[in-house]
Amino acid sequence: MNTEHRQDGDGVRHIRLNRPEKRNALDLGSYRWLREQLRSAIEDPGVRSIAFSAEGSDFCAGNDLADFLAGPELGPGHPIIELLHALADCPKPLLAGVQGNAVGIGATLLLHMDLVLLAEDARLSFPFVDLGLVPEFASSLLLPRRLGHVRACQLLLLGDSLDAATARDWGLANQLVATTELPARLEETARRLAAKPTRALLASKALLKAPEQALLHRTIDQEIEVFRQALAGDEARGRIAALLARIGGR
């Protein structure tokens, strides 16, 4: 059963992950729920900004690997692919407040936010190669564009993680805040956006995103195809099985 939470107020749609016992790892039900909530927020004229957050000590530990392996093959209509494209296309401002670990999809998700607030204990990790997989959610495009090739390789090839201060300094976040202040600061920032003139706000985001939108969607699909092939291979299956055995399944 999915236990994510949704809440509206002052023009803000709050979408909150709430699987702390799983470190907010995403299963297929989570992806379906997130896609539904995003669609609802986009269609609701009363929602003018969308804020993502998470319950517990970690933002998101990535995919729920056991559920992910047991699910349907990645392809058209898959809940994960639908959510990735929907987030990349979202016309309304997206924000995230991140505490603790943001791993895999929990980290690449942030590349599609318009504003990111990191708690002081936040840490971003992109461990795709270590799992025998490849980058996803257009991270192979967006990370080099934002950080340069060598820093992107440090994250995507070596698999080094980033602490909050470094992530902010490298341009992956707007603000670094105390963990206890994160919910209030996220709320304040989301309300500031929601209070802006709506047409100008949406038009400005569209202009900012327009130059790379087509390439963004092509990259998402290209990565997914390579990711699908890698996931079917012995290398990834063995690495993931070993990880699940080590952590007792997730």
Automatic annotation (TrEMBL):
Q: Which Pfam families match?
A: ECH_1
Query: Does the keyword Isomerase feature in the UniProt annotation?
Result: yes
Q: Among its keywords, does the record have Ribonucleoprotein? A: no
Give the lineage: Bacteria, Pseudomonadati, Pseudomonadota, Gammaproteobacteria, Aeromonadales
Q: What is this protein called?
A: Uncharacterized protein
UniProtKB keywords: Isomerase, Peroxisome
Tell me the organism: Zobellella denitrificans
Give its localization: Peroxisome
Q: Which SUPFAM superfamilies match?
A: ClpP/crotonase
- Record-linked InterPro entries: ClpP/crotonase-like_dom_sf, ECH/Chromodomain_protein, Enoyl-CoA_hydra/iso
Give the GO molecular function terms: delta(3)-delta(2)-enoyl-CoA isomerase activity
